[in-house]
Amino acid sequence: MAGEQTVRVDGRRLRLSNLDKVLYPATGTTKGEVIDYVSRIAPLMLPHLDRRPVTRKRWPEGVEHPDFFAKDLERGAPSWLPRLPIDHSSGAKDYPLVDEVASLVYLAQVASLELHVPQWRFTDAGERGAPDRLVLDLDPGPGVGLAECAEVARWVRDILDDMGMQLFPVTSGSKGIHLYASLDGSQTSDQASMLAKELARALEADHPDLVVSQMTRSARAGKVFLDWSQNNGSKTTIAPYSLRGRAEPTVAAPRTWDELADPGLRHLRFDEMLDRASNLGDLLAPLAPARTAPLVPYLAKRSADRTPEPMPAAVSPAPVSVGAAAGASDDSRRFVVQEHHARRLHYDLRLERDGVLVSWAVPRGIPDTPDRNHLAVMTEPHPMEYLTFAGEIPAGEYGAGTMTIWDTGRYDLEKWRDDEIIFTLHGTPGGAADAARLVLIRTGGAGEKSQWLLHRMKADAASPRLRTATSTTPATTPAPAGDDPEAGAVSPRAPMLAVPSAPGPARAAASRWGSWVEFKWDGIRALASWDGERLRLTARSGTDITARYPELTGAALGLGADALVLDGEIVALDAAGRPSFPLLQNRMHLSKPREIERERERTPIDYFVFDLLRIGERDVTGLPLRDRRRLLEEATAGARAPLTVPPRTDDLDAALTAARELDLEGAVVKDPGSPYRPGVRSEEWLKVKLTRTQDVVVGAIRPGKGGRRGGIGSLLLGIPGPDGLRYAGRVGSGFSDIELARLEAALEPLRTSENPFVGIPAADASDALWVAPELVGEVEFAEFTPGGILRHARWRGLRPDRSPADVTREE
């Protein structure tokens, strides 16, 4: 497991690095082995972390080096990792909630070896709940050990047995023993602490020679300190099954009472824990309460005495094997599609996830072709028992009508995010849902009643039709200018460009052509040349940007052996999963390998591919778009993130609505019969922007005042025209401190005494510091004045992928 790799864990994409780094020198245990442990122990561990804020002790350099305690979730943590704030004297801190295998794997990747949690859970409203368990920490002082702790544990058990409370022992993996008992939620943390304190004092009174309840360290020699304080709502205890940062990789291990009677009782290592887990399961299972919250809406809409639908009491944990590998690319789970004759016929798609069936109503059912998308509306989660439900829901009840099973089986999961789910159904062999590779894209709302698009993708990763096309077609068609057929190189300035359009003309064009609509992603355009082993990237300006995005160029992308030339957009997604051009600025200006490597952890990127220029030695730019798309989907059917082929739609208005709700730039309408025209701005592609943006050339600096004194106050901008660089106004907002520093470094070497503008007013030129017009930037703006000046311009960032010759006015 040496080096670096990108894996999928339950549909989450994770980048794992330094897997051969030794974290426990005494045993030679590596980070890769730690990740393997947490992924395999997850089914037992996760219920005891469920809805508890997790603090972490991290050892990035290994346990022989100092650790540090982390409360606030570190910058760069995946956006899908849930978090909730807890107020501290220094301000609120966001704590991670660890509810899936991928979360455990991520924490292990950043060397969070110890996971500590309180004895309470967050409520469904995100508030601190009452404690649901009592904990006593038996800490041996000098001169005593586990045997003495076990003796005290038996005394505690006798007392709690008389109180009707079952006690569960855990050897802590460090020094002593932890004892847990369930609470019914009627006590506060202060009350639980008081109960534990009185218990400790009673034991100290009965056994003063061995038990001490005082915090004073000097009183602990030869005794077991019964620490009751960890029931305080602000205190935490090592989570069951968590590793410890000791010399050896020991764990907080649940034990039987018979084991505690063994004179040779010792702490267990992680490998021993895995062996026990497969044989004994979770000895602490009674401490993990049943998860009913996801089914509350389902149960609230139905009455058991009036409908035959299943009425479960709780949510069962997702069936994950203890031996599951962290690097598994797919996770096979169950699905059902039900034909529902309610007020209107529709189909219900249900996917197993976290012990429930996440559900969508799909009026037109599963698409049988990639050429059309179907609307899907999320409904409430359903119980697992619904997998086999068929019958008549009585009139007057929620969902009244006949329910039959249209198809059922298992599905392989590629990605599960809040706004995108990619999966392959394996239903009845030969049926419509067999080997159906689908994607759900959220277009509006959140949770129940949110709207999604259901799209069917090409599923055949090694299409015979593609192999025939590439192997029998002679390479007689000319390559695009500047390309080397042997190397599959990309010609600089080769991308085909779209013409700006208003929605009306674009809608009319789509009606003429037959609708073909793609989202406009807020990133940078890049051509990609794949030679069968490695990807090379070229920006629209012709600059080679391969080294800037090593996750694309050095990753195993699953593109196969055939050479390809692709066209697409490099994007950075924000915490909500939306493309963010300002966030991408953190990556696109870097050139030093160390800076790139550091920033890629904080700002991962994706490459959204939408066109194919060449496959093998065959130039396909002359083919219609619909045929290029078919070849593209076939050639990338086995592709893995961060390379993705986003779905298209056939409804411009729906696409623009979705783009508004997702804060996307807009949409592009394309003629499906059009060829690819390298380097041409063609009216066969029409871009409809929701936010008006304009490329501009920077021609001068106006000095700052007040807080910006001595630096950049605003930039003077121009757009090339027939008579030179026509002045287009200034921009003074939208600058971050980092961006201002970047601009000052880039513009200072370009200072000149010559005014580059045509038509600049004397007032704007009076204090201008001229620069050579070589840098291109992008601004948002409200409109152009009749004189061609940008109104309400706001800076978005430099565009190193473009040159001044590329800049034209966006009408």
UniProtKB/TrEMBL annotation:
The lineage of its organism: Bacteria, Bacillati, Actinomycetota, Actinomycetes, Micrococcales. The keyword Disulfide bond does not apply. Its cofactor is Mn(2+). Its EC number is 6.5.1.1. Pfam families: DNA_ligase_A_C, DNA_ligase_A_M, LigD_N, LigD_Prim-Pol. One of its GO terms (molecular function) is metal ion binding. It comes from the Bacteria. CDD domains: Adenylation_DNA_ligase_LigD_LigC, MtLigD_Pol_like, OBF_DNA_ligase_LigD. It catalyses: ATP + (deoxyribonucleotide)n-3'-hydroxyl + 5'-phospho-(deoxyribonucleotide)m = (deoxyribonucleotide)n+m + AMP + diphosphate. In the N-terminal section; belongs to the LigD polymerase family. In the C-terminal section; belongs to the ATP-dependent DNA ligase family. Signal peptide: none annotated. This is DNA ligase (ATP). Gene3D superfamilies: 3.30.1490.70, DNA ligase/mRNA capping enzyme, DNA primase, PRIM domain, Nucleic acid-binding proteins. Residues 461-481 have a biased composition (Low complexity).
